[in-house]
Amino acid sequence: MQKVTDDGGIVKIVxxxxxxxxxxDDDQNQQPMAWVKGTNAKLHYKVTTAPFRQLEKAGSKSxxxxxxxxxxRNDATARKRELKDSKEAxxxxxxxxxxxSDDDGxxxxxxxxxxxxxxxxxxxxxxxxxxxxxxADSTVDEEPFxxxxxxxxxxxxxxxxxxxxxxxxxxxxxxxxEYTDGFIQLESLLRKERAAADAQRxxxxxxxxxxxxxxxxxxxxxxxxxxxxxxxxxxxxxxxxLLDVQxxxxxxRKVWEMxxxxxxxxxxTHRARGTALVRSTPSDWSAARDAYRRSLELLEAVAQAPNVxxxxxxxxxxxxxxxxxxxxxxxxxxxxxxxxxxxxxxxLAVRLNYALCSLKLSEYDxxxxxxxEILTSAPNHPKALFRRGLAHLRRGRDLELAERDFxxxxxxxxxxxxxxxxxxxxQDLQGKWKAARQQESRLWRGVxxxxx
Length: 452
Prior knowledge:
Blueprint lengths: L1 E2 L6 E7 L23 E10 L2 E3 L17 H19 L26 E2 L5 E4 L6 E4 L7 E4 L7 H7 L7 E6 L7 H19 L13 H10 L1 H4 L6 E11 L13 H20 L5 H20 L1 H12 L22 H21 L3 H14 L4 H14 L3 H14 L7 H32 L1
Antiparallel strand pairs: 1-2, 2-9, 3-7, 3-8, 3-10, 4-6, 5-6, 9-10
């Protein structure tokens, strides 16, 4: 074992050391690597409650095995036993199944539980494997967990632990209660994101996310994730597998890592890439959809940024046009150069293209959602109406909505009944209406016959 922090609040055991490129161990390969701010660590982790049970506080009637002060021989013996017990507690292969007997053949008479671990604040714990349980496992996600170094991560102890590792290494860390801050919040957030992603894939509304931290919201969260909140104030074990390390130019940054100017300037790049993929032969609809999705994420983040909205309001209050001489399309250098006109036009175009790709990939819920977003601000947009109608039609359960959208397209004057695309969609709709009516008629016929 080795101390990661000076006070012993984080302790490390290497389970599988990193390997040199030639497959051989060497001293240089086992030295800590230099971590730079912004480096991306791709990893998997598993969190369990440590196999320790807190002993009663000093001064109580509970007897805890201690050594007489000043007796160096006894102190040395106790330290050896504590080290042995701690190693066995941290390594599952050598758990003792509750056997706390000494190796020196001591009497088997019942004794008080021994203190095998003490937190930096002096709280003592005895070995108890029965309390160990898994509370988090990142392998349930399809992709590895990504940790940006030096970005004020909400679970600082995990970042501290990872920074002692090298790619390919597997290590287990024991965290004292003083170093577990942020774990509950992180895992609770990840669980909510997984639930939202599962709902989206299943076509269900995403669970309501608590956008506040009032007492009621915390109480509901604590009840829903009782297994997490029960770890408050207890030691934790974290087993980490460091899969890869990437520099800032080797990974795509998350939206929250970027400034408004960076988002604004980068969005057109992904839009252009999506368009090129659509026009390629054959069209790569999946890759194009991903490119449009990235562009949309960036544009939405710019549109929702408080600084952009505030700057626009201030210019309007001064009587200046929102899209004045300084406001322009990318690239820009300052936030006050954001063009609301360009932003709105880009959002509309990207949403339309995103919907088109989703239709091609049979992702009808996503296509309908993007078209509805457009129609919220532009109720008579013909392409949005037609593509949403196609999504309803191909989904097969919203024929009334499809018919309404197709007829609305005609009212805009952008298409006529003789247009091949509209006529084909309308014919398909009538065929599905006919099939639906025939099925309904058969159902009612069966009901009447069974009643005779």
